[in-house]
């Protein structure tokens, strides 16, 4: 079972729900693993007491120019559709940040002068937490492309924990990183807040899920402030509302310190119970 | 003309609410620019007219012509993105997986693969509150290249500001540290970092500041929800001091942010004499001093 926790808008509570839900599921004696896929700004670890077990480098494959046999024909630059290669009169320049690792330049080079080599883009860390393992993908600063690292973090988690319940904490937004974090999951939970911003970004996220033909439901966070438009929208569209988490300044205060909430706030725990009973009804 | 870019790393810190408030305060002295194209929502606070729509094309997707295709499978062999599969005996491209690299079309012996340019989104130059204009965009569902769309939105906003001889471009940046935020930051005269007094607020601030420093940009910071955790606020201030970044505002945890939003108003309109509104006005004055 793979569940992705996502949202169009940032700051709606993805990480809060992901960390608390995983910890709570583990406390009930279930095998569960959490993976932080918000590789640009991973911060699930801040809310967990972690012990680092191991770190592995995450790479992407990029061409590496070898001068020896190169005739400077310039075919590589023509074959690159991402402007990652520039053929100069006396050398070939490669811009690794722009490379999408399609291998066209390398495999179509008549003199094999652009072998693909691994270039670091970030790392994948495995941590021990009380009751479960936690995996984090972390993109190096200055790297532009998050998608390859997200894919590798999912692959690592799926391979190493085939029989666990897998909770994925997704990046915010509606474009490529979220798509990578959502496709292949059994269910996506979209977290929103009951405000016009929340509704606007929820609609975008819902459209993305529909393009992907992905099963999804909605969690309304900070319920009680704002307006009723998110609920009305979900009802009209026939989207299940999994739970409504009450707005509570106490939640914000505990969050600010990096504490888990369900042990201290009964209404929050009730919401997790609703999420878990919902998960029980998902066909995976 | 000076470009001020508001970014936050972490979402939900109040970045858009503050950008909209600054835009409202500056009125027709500024052009406004929403670079959070992934989940654009500044238009909700500024009553944007969605005028002057243009298509934004970016990226390509492979399309296989069934008449010409002999199903030799060469295309699927070279594709690194698992975008080509066989359905009912015919090779087909999954447009969501396709990266648009052209490799398949280059190796196809029958020239059966055409690369189609994709419409990736819409760009608008809208009339907004307080007699000014905003350039903003809507990314297509599942479309890529949001970094390129950000660059285009910014370019259009800057051109408009130059044409109309405006003093400022106020840009609501994208979240994160990847390609859209890198595009948002490029060429900024001043970066306004909005953070919150939470453990994740500090963590994400540290990462976004490293990014800002690699581009050698000048930055100032606003700490939102500072009273949620005063200890955290102290840590943030200490950290900013070592980075030589001035704090131009400290705002309390205040549900006015949400109430104003529910009324589709900026905070400075909702209750222009409140302590919060005055605080925000003072921050904006300090920001303008920093960029002058």
Please specify the SSE layout and strand pairing:
The complex is a heterodimer of chains A (284) and B (292).
Chain A: E1 2-6, H1 14-27, E2 32-36, E3 51-63, H2 75-79, E4 85-87, E5 92-94, H3 104-107, E6 116-129, E7 132-139, H4 147-160, E8 165-169, H5 176-182, E9 187-193, H6 196-212, E10 216-223, H7 229-237, E11 241-246, H8 249-257, H9 266-280
Parallel strand pairs in A: 1-8, 1-9, 2-7, 2-8, 9-10, 10-11
Antiparallel strand pairs in A: 3-6, 4-5, 6-7
Helix pairs in contact in A: 4-5
Chain B: E1 2-7, H1 15-26, E2 30-34, H2 43-46, E3 54-64, H3 74-78, E4 84-87, E5 90-93, H4 103-107, E6 113-128, E7 132-139, H5 146-163, E8 168-172, H6 179-185, E9 190-196, H7 199-214, E10 219-224, H8 230-242, E11 246-250, H9 256-262, H10 267-270, H11 275-291
Parallel strand pairs in B: 1-8, 1-9, 2-7, 2-8, 9-10, 10-11
Antiparallel strand pairs in B: 3-6, 4-5, 6-7
Spans of at least 5 consecutive residues with low confidence of chain A: none
Main pleated-sheet profile of chain B:
9 strands, mixed
Helix content of chain A: 25-40%
How large is the share of residues in beta strands of chain A?
25-35%
How much of the polypeptide of chain B forms β-strand, as a percent range? 25-35%
Through-space gap between termini of chain B: 10 Å
Q: Output the CATH homologous superfamily of the largest domain in chain A.
A: P-loop containing nucleotide triphosphate hydrolases
Q: What structural class do helix, strand and pairing data of chain B support? A: alpha/beta
Tell me the span between the first and last alpha carbons of chain A: 6 Å
Order of helices and strands of chain B: EHEHEHEEHEEHEHEHEHEHHH
Strand order of the largest sheet of chain B: 3-6-7-2-8-1-9-10-11
Order of strands side by side in the largest beta sheet of chain A? 3-6-7-2-8-1-9-10-11
